[in-house]
Predict the structure.
Amino acid sequence: QVQLVESGGGLVQAGGSLRLSCAASGRTSAVAWFRQAPGKEREFVAAIGQSASSIYYTDSVKGRFSISRDNAKNTADLQMNSLKPEDTAVYYCAADDRNDINWPYEYIYWGQGTQVTVSS
């Protein structure tokens, strides 16, 4: 059982930046960030494989967001730049700990989420 804890959310003006961090209680293979805005379904944002050589983004954040991980620390970060009001959502970290998994990943563990609010 892996526990995930997100941090780094907050209020920022449009065009600003935030860095989210996901701390895992144990080893993970794939890690991803999802988000859910009020009244909308949860959507995929970004994912990274265990070796960090496999990285995926949803189109709306390409060129603005960057996902990374530190396997020694069991953390995965989401650097968010050029934020827009439409990025406002609760951001969730998700992870898997199974070996030899391929894209598209499936996620067993989920964090509680962290609020990101972008003002116009």
User: Anything to note?
Assistant: The chain is about 0% helix and 50% strand. The CA atoms of residues 49 and 96 lie 10 Å apart. The longest strand covers residues 18-24.
